[in-house]
């Protein structure tokens, strides 16, 4: 498979997205006026999406019942 300079660009943008998760930052550094263009370079695996989802914080705490409260 031939290698092109564009492969380096795609890999760099994808690596930046993987490290920062910031589409706006990657878009600015890539020189894209529209973040949708940068999003096409996003080749992160599903694992990266799952890590991002697990990092979300929720502003509440689930109330756990003790054994004596369950009856």
**Which percent bin holds the helix content?**
55-70%
Secondary-structure class: mainly alpha
Low-confidence region ranges: none
Number of helices: 5
Termini gap: 66 Å
Strand share of the residues? under 5%
Mean pLDDT: 81
Total strand segments: 0
Shape: elongated
Radius of gyration: 20 Å
Outline the structure in words.
The relative contact order is 0.12. The model has no long low-confidence stretch (mean pLDDT 81). Helix content is 59%, strand content 0%. The chain is mainly α and 71 residues long. The chain has a domain at 1-48. It contains 5 helices and no strands.
Can you give me a brief rundown of this structure?
The protein has 71 residues and is mainly alpha-helical. It is built from five helices and no strands.
SSE blueprint and pairings:
Blueprint: H1 5-20, H2 23-30, H3 35-39, H4 46-54, H5 67-70
Defining traits:
71 residues, mainly alpha, elongated
